[in-house]
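Support case: iron/sulfur cluster complex. Customer-provided input:
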Amino acid sequence: MKRLVDILRDTHHLEAQDYAALLSAPNGDEVAYLRQQAQQVAVDNFGHGIFVRGLVEVTNVCRNDCLYCGIRKSNPHIDRYMLTHDEVMQCCQQGHDIGFHTFVLQGGELPRDKAQWIEELVTDIRASWPDCAITLSLGEWPRKVYERWHRAGADRYLLRHETHNLAHYATLHPASMSLTTRLQCLDALKQVGYQVGTGIMVGSPGQTLDHLVEDIQYIEQLKPHMIGLGPFVPHHDTPLAHHPTGSADITTRLYAIFRLMFPKVLIPSTTALNSIDPNGRLMGIEAGANVVMPNLSPALFRDQYSLYDGKAATHAEAAEGIKMLQGQLATIGYHINWGRGDSPVFCNNNSLNTNNP
Ligand code: SF4
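Agent response - structure generated as follows:
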């Protein structure tokens, strides 16, 4: 297996059966080698600095009904909120005062008439902090809306495809949602000029090894600027409440595989990973991740943005715990990089991307 790791590191590509072999090998020295090589590649490209993104959960209102999600529209056991324009600006101000240079506005898929609200927010954030990057994570919208938000100043967009397998997608989403639409949105976002992130839930109900390989191959072809992977974590008020949590082991193997495929891509060590293992954030970094996303949302609303049970939103996971985060990173020889952390223009012939703004 070490030979496969070396090939992936040197050529950034493997055949399908070789990705499957990396994901299914027994845990041991060879899997440790995979993570070690990925960490080394991340250090070679980014040093020991970890980018931070300030996460603002602008609303838990959503028009969709994904079967795995705690804020799906048919969950009646949740108090819905939308931050006001001023509240979002205050979150960003506090984040900027701490030193953040990227704000991530995340939320459920809002009714279409709220596009203007987002546009005004982006316009104001861009004018107030021209030195900062603005990332949106607000789901599927018509291309024209993506264009408006991009013109207003948004730089990046996160939209996980969740699974590239049609049948699997249909088991996780209501019939009103379509994988084709999701993939078209990702293509549109790239064409509009965003730095684009996609990704999956690892261990989602019904996911097989073949599905994961299909996801890897889709991401290989999409060539995103960011790859977000977290373990599936059930939420008690969803139809998938009793499905087991995804594996931290497989999640970090995937971090490592993507780092070796795309040496310069931005890979967050996700909150979901840290929610299932207290060392999750550091495990992610030791497998090649190079971004963390502390929560800037008002503490009052954090419990209501409950995508899954046990979501970490305090201590080092929150912006006010930044010293704790710095302390954690220091234990493995890392520090915070306060820069914007734009995706470097991909320059390997395996990852040419002409849409990088
Ligand atoms: S996963 Fe996203 S689109 Fe689906 S219900 Fe949750 S917030 Fe809405």
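Residues 29-46 form the longest helix (18 residues).

Case will auto-close in a few days if no follow-up is received.
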